[in-house]
From TrEMBL, chain A:
Keyword field: Cell adhesion, Cell junction, Coiled coil, Cytoplasm, Cytoskeleton
Cell compartments where the protein resides: Cell junction, Adherens junction; Cytoplasm, Cytoskeleton, Microtubule organizing center, Centrosome, Centriolar satellite
Domain of life the protein comes from: Eukaryota
Organism: Cyclopterus lumpus (Lumpsucker)
Coiled coil: 162-221
Keyword Coiled coil assigned: yes
Protein name (Swiss-Prot/TrEMBL): SSX family member 2 interacting protein
Family according to the record: Belongs to the ADIP family.
UniProtKB/TrEMBL annotation, chain B:
GO cellular component, as recorded: microtubule organizing center; MWP complex
Organism: Cyclopterus lumpus
Name of the protein described by the UniProt record: WD repeat containing, antisense to TP73
InterPro entries: Centrosome-WD_assoc (IPR052778), Quino_amine_DH_bsu (IPR011044), WD40/YVTN_repeat-like_dom_sf (IPR015943), WD40_rpt (IPR001680)
Gene name of this polypeptide: wrap73
SMART domains: WD40
Taxonomic lineage: Eukaryota, Metazoa, Chordata, Craniata, Vertebrata
UniProt cross-references to Pfam families, sorted A to Z: WD40
Amino acid sequence: MSKTSYCAYLTGFISPEVKDTCSSSVECRSPPLIQFSQSSVPLHRNYILSTFCTEHNVQECLSHINQEVSSLGLPPVWTESSGSSEMNVMAVLNCMYDLIQLHHRGLRTLENMEVEQLKSSSNVDHLHCLSLLKLILNEQLELSKRGNTGLLERERQLHLKVKSLQNCLKNEKDEVQKLQNIIASRASQYNHEMKRKEREFTKLKERLNQLLVDKKEKKQAIDVLNNIGRADGKRSLWKTQKTEAKHEGEMYKTLLSDYDTRQREMLLENAELKKVLQQIKKEMVSILSLRKPIRKDDKHPDAGIQDEEQVFDSSKESVGLFSVHAREKLTNSIRLQWRRLKSHVERLDSQGSLYMGENKTDDAISRETHEEEMDRLKLEIQPCKDFIQTQQQLLQQQLSSPCDEETTSLLSNCYMLQERERFREEWKTLEKQRNLFERERRNCTEAAISINSRHASHSLPCARKKVCCLYLHKP
Amino acid sequence: MNFSEVFKQSNQLCKVSPDGKYLATCVQYRLVVRDVSTLQILQLYTCLDQISHMDWSSDSLFILCAMYKRGLVQVWSLEQPDWHCKIDEGSIGLVSSRWSPDGRHILNTTEFHLRVTVWSLCTKAVSYIKYPKACQKGIDFSRDGCYMALAERRDCKDYVSVFVCDDWHLLRHFETETQDLAGLEWSPNGCVLAVWDSCLEYKVLLYSLDGRLLSAYSAYEWSLGVKSVTWSPNSQFLAIGSYDEKVRILNHITWKKITQFEHPSSINNTKAVVYKEVEKRTAVGSDDLSLHITIGTALYNTRSKYEICPSPVQIPVVKPDPDRANPKIGVSSLAFSSDSRYLATKNDNMASVVWVWDMQKMSLVAVLEQTSAVRCFQWDPCRPRLALCTGNTTLYLWSPAGCVSVQVPTEGGFQVQSLNWHRSGDSLMLLGKEQLCLCYMDTDQEDNIREFTATK
């Protein structure tokens, strides 16, 4: 509902009097005021008296009214001192007049308050409307802003389009210029050719005229002293089908031999290239296989395939030169190896760069790690050092400290003890052996003596001597 | 390096015989035959008119002298000086005359390219070939002398006829996919025929000996196309120089482009050596300045030497007139060395520069910047040595070891306009406007080079 219609709807309920007093102010009024204004009307129109005062309670009514009036701040209507039940008419009238005045004043203030309230409510409504209006305007503003950005965007795109179209135009213009230049050069070329042909044509016409006019036609002739032989010395042949066929044959022979040589050359080249490829593949495989033990993420099946391939290729080398399948296999395997090698090199590169980066980026960090390492090593070294020191000390002690003779004598030769023992053992065994030899010698000499005595009867002096000497000189 | 004395010649007609023993020169209407080593005159022949073209037969026994104005061809025998032969083309006229590879037939192209007449010196027989095409290079003989390829034009279409030189039997006749055939050339192994279109369309066609189209190559459309084509001696490469200042190399296996060489105006390549010719003028006698001024440059000893320029190097570029036909732009001269290792090129809008490319590395090896436009360059038939001349009195030689510039020691100045190597690679024939001089290379030419060169 619009504001004006709402207000019209409201004003229908309001009395003319109230409308008069309130029309100067705002349009809208609030409903609760209606009842109040309605209730105030009867005070002015034929109000029926209430049964407040009767003949019996006049005194009470009088005192009540007195109280009421005095509470209102007016002089009392009746004073008890007068003693009569008669009212002071003047005082009563005055009181009544005062009361009426109060009432009027009250009504006025009421009206004023009504007006004020109407005003404030209408203000509130107005503000409410304004806020609604503000919302609506905000929405409109948002919409228009969006519309604006959209338009800006469109404008920008159109600008770009304009630029690109200008570029296109420039290109087209250049193209057109180029084509025009081409046309111009072609035109000049055509013109030149035309002129040349025309000149030739004119010359031809002149010559024709000359020939038509010229009665004496000079015929072609050759005048040779004597025929000379052919360059190759052979006789020239008649042109027959056979010679024609021969010519054809020779022509094809030339072509075929050319193709032959070309094919041979290409085969050779192919073989060379295949050899080179095989070599490259072998080398790549060897390089990659060297890296294999170090690499962790190595796939087993690949190694297997490699070996298979190697076996395959080497066994069927000659076939590989001719079969398409083998050729494809070779190129594929080369590609595979190359990819592996490449990835490996890339990895190395990245590692190297990382390492380099680490080294280059922050000296402080590396020094820290370095120092940490140093400290750790130092810590490790320290107990060893202590150990060595204690050893040294003990040794020194041993060497320097005094001790009893037994121990000293023991100690003095303690290093050689083992060897001494060994030597003693050996001496013993040798002694035993010596004794054994001695005994054997004695036995032998006794045996020799006995033999000698026996031989003395058989007279062999020389042998005896020798034997004796032999046994005597043996140590 | 020794220089012979200067001889007279006319029309730049000086040729060494194919066997390398004799030197034939034309002086007006006389034909002089000398011994190459002694330069003694061996024979002297007189022709009926001024000689327009002269050529040796393949067996070095005969020399043909063509007089185009008179329509005459005279053939002389070296062994028998009394022997004579005269071919009169009559009213039909003569524009070109050449030997056949067997040295016993002469092919005359009549005026207006009406027909090619094949005259046999053995049998006096005549054959005619109709509709030859008037183009840059319409006839080519294979190196082994067995076949001849001839460009023909009938009904506004191009054809190629392959003849067997033995008996002029037409082996193959096929139409080519060209708009306007400009030239054809056999590969050195005689199995492939390269055919190229006029400059209005970039098209190079490769035909097998039996007439099959092997491949067609076109680098780009619309702009002016092929300017020059040459085979490498080992038949492996076909170099195509075009108007866009680039050389494209096709390979003989796939007939596809394997690389292209560009001729930029500023060279940044550190691997290439840039030799720049620097002229130094030293006055002969500095006493009387006025004398010097009046007499002119003859008294100045212009010594030029090569200097190595550090990269980047700027090459002088001359922009051609855009309105003229056959503009002076693009690669017009290409030459492979005899071992196919090097390729020398010249770009017409940088006319004073010769570029040498290495075919193994497919890169630029050397740049020779001269003071004036390069007129002629030719590779030594035996080794990778390039001789070039620029129309002044200096001879320039390049080899992978370095560069030499040698003054031709003649009085009165000898402007070297073109040069030709002897087939042994031991001597060079230098041709001036009307003079001829032989230059004998030392056998130990490396010493020479060390003496004169700027080396890296």
